[in-house]
Amino acid sequence: MADLAVERGSEMRWKSIFVVALIVTLVPLFVHAEVPLQERPEVADALRVLDRWIDKQIEYHQLPGLSIAVVYDQEIAWAKGYGYSDVEGKIPATPSTVYRMGSVTKVFTSTAIMMLRDQGKLRLDDPVSKYLPWFRINNPFPDSPEITIRQLLTHTSGLPREADVPYWTDHIFPTREQLIEVVPTQELVAQPATTYHYSNLGLSLVGEIVAEVSGRSWAEYLQTEIFEPLGMSSSSGAPGEALMQRRATPYMLMGSDGSRDIFDYYDAGAIGPAANMVSTVEDIARFAALQFSGGPAEGAQILKGSTLREMQRVHWVYPSFSGGRGLGFSVSHRSGKDFVGHGGWIGGNRSSLMMVPEEKIAVIAILNADDRSPGLFSRQAYEVVGPALLKATRPETIAEKPVVDPAWEKFVGRYADPWGWEYEILILGGNLVEFGYDYPPDEKASAGYTILTPVEGTTFRRPDNEKMTFELDDDGAVVRIKRRNDYIFPTKR
């Protein structure tokens, strides 16, 4: 077994190297204005890589369901559901499945306040008390400045994370009246404008300011001024019966016996502006498209382009200098790029909105289970599909499809050794490729791929210089593959 582990570890190193060539370097480029992005060869190949990886992640980790969408500029390049919106009812998860968004709600509450700012109805550096006369809190820090709206948006107000009510314990959230009553009994945990301290309470106050300035409830303002203009027909801060019927069943952590309990729905009350929104990956994709221009393709420009960029820009830098806080967004800097977005987590729903504004690429991923990060799916979708999208949309790309030997088609399929270890032969980017299923599945979607170089007839050479030969019957069907000195066999799966 030790020798086998060493062999497979060596294979993984080769696979990691060669998959880069597979999906980025060796794929010929093909662009035509009438061809949907997901059907362009380089993008289609990248999506096959991602799709296979997601399938295995869902299966191995026994996740109920996932919905995911990739946006390029003003277009949903690809969207798909995996697993089930409701496991017991066998209802598939789809791009139109409704989920709770958790803290991604904060991005929309922040957008509302910026709309009011652009209308001249408030200033970001105004004190919170100017709009909420009832707002006061114990301040143990002498000579502190007043808490401002900008500090609420960047989580630098010094407010505690929550209102002093145990709502994450009993899921009984405060009403507005209870919030007004409890906040003055609380105390700042830091001096305003000195440090970052994430606060659901702070964004709840932003929602209160939206309501006070607009004369409408926070949820109503989002509905009429953001969701409806952007065509987000499956989104709400106060979901009614129709959306509740479409909502994914929210599952708790998986027990030792493999079962999952279900969360009862709970409304976030006065904390709603920080957590209560429901939506779909299709709807969030429309919001992401807004971020890449003055407005979406339909022309609904709810914010100026300069304001969108202002929100995406860092306004508070983390001590590590690796990122910071925009206005409503988190911002991280990796590999020379700014990643802008927000994550969310509430009662069996986990969400991730990740955008790279300079490339006009966004990924939205949402799960209906507590025990896997949707950010993992967002990052891998970006890493695998992002380069293909950028190549496919360059004006100088060559309008040619990869040339594939038609004889290779009979090799394509699923194979296994006698002990159940699986492999797959497929065609990607004009190459015959072997994919090896690892258990647990690799955290990187691009891992596991090996390009096979033709030698003669049905014999190919692996990158480690070992050979693979497809052995055929009289009808030309594969009966087995000699892989080095061992054999794998076709499966019916």
CATH topology of the largest domain: Beta-lactamase
Number of strands: 19
Strand order, main sheet: write it out: 3-2-1-11-10-9-8-7-6
Distance between the terminal alpha carbons, to the nearest Å? 26 Å
Helix segment tally: 13
Largest sheet: 9 strands, antiparallel
Within CATH, the superfamily of the largest domain carries the name: DD-peptidase/beta-lactamase superfamily
How helical, in percent, are the residues? 25-40%
Derived from helix and strand composition plus strand pairing, the structural class reads alpha+beta
> Approximately what portion of the residues adopt beta-strand conformation?
15-25%
Mean pLDDT: 90
What is the class of the largest domain in the CATH system?
Alpha Beta
Low-confidence sequence ranges: 1-33
Care to describe what's here?
With 493 residues, the protein is of the alpha+beta class. It has 2 domains: 1-61 and 384-493, Lipocalin; 76-371, DD-peptidase/beta-lactamase superfamily (Beta-lactamase). Helix content is 31%, strand content 22%. It contains 13 helices and 19 strands. A 9-stranded antiparallel beta sheet has the order 3-2-1-11-10-9-8-7-6, with helices on both faces. β13 (422-428) and β14 (431-436) form a beta hairpin. The two termini are 26 Å apart.
Task: Reconstruct the topology from this structure.
Blueprint: H1 2-25, H2 41-60, E1 65-72, E2 75-86, E3 91-92, E4 99-100, H3 105-118, H4 149-154, H5 167-170, H6 176-182, H7 200-214, H8 218-230, H9 241-246, H10 272-275, E5 278-279, H11 281-291, H12 305-312, E6 316-317, E7 323-325, E8 330-334, E9 337-346, E10 349-356, E11 361-367, H13 374-392, E12 413-416, E13 422-428, E14 431-436, E15 449-456, E16 459-461, E17 467-472, E18 478-483, E19 486-490
Antiparallel strand pairs: 1-2, 1-11, 2-3, 4-5, 6-7, 7-8, 8-9, 9-10, 10-11, 12-13, 12-19, 13-14, 14-15, 15-16, 16-17, 17-18, 18-19
Helix pairs in contact: 2-13, 3-7, 3-8
